[in-house]
């Protein structure tokens, strides 16, 4: 939940600026599935899985941010 607001803001800004390409759609899908995996790993109590999935979701956000800034 802590980075959902940032993700939503990035996606809304990208939508408003009409920035939609393979990188943004892949990053959005990756974000979704990484957050699902984060929940599963959290429930399963896998030690480093939470860190990896959380970092991956941040990387997906950075990818969208890079697409916005490169316009």
Automatic annotation (TrEMBL):
Compartments, record wording: Membrane
Answer yes or no on keyword Phosphoprotein: no
Annotated keywords = Membrane, Transmembrane, Transmembrane helix
Note the InterPro entries from the entry.
MAPEG-like_dom_sf, Membr-assoc_MAPEG
> Where is this chain primarily localised?
membrane
Tell me the Pfam families matching this sequence. MAPEG (PF01124)
Is Membrane there in the keyword field? yes
Question: Which cellular components does GO assign to this protein?
Answer: membrane
In terms of PANTHER family, this protein maps to: BLR7753 PROTEIN (PTHR35371:SF1), INNER MEMBRANE PROTEIN (PTHR35371)
Protein name (record): Membrane-associated proteins in eicosanoid and glutathione metabolism
- Organism field: Luminiphilus syltensis NOR5-1B
Top-level taxonomy: Bacteria, Pseudomonadati, Pseudomonadota, Gammaproteobacteria, Cellvibrionales
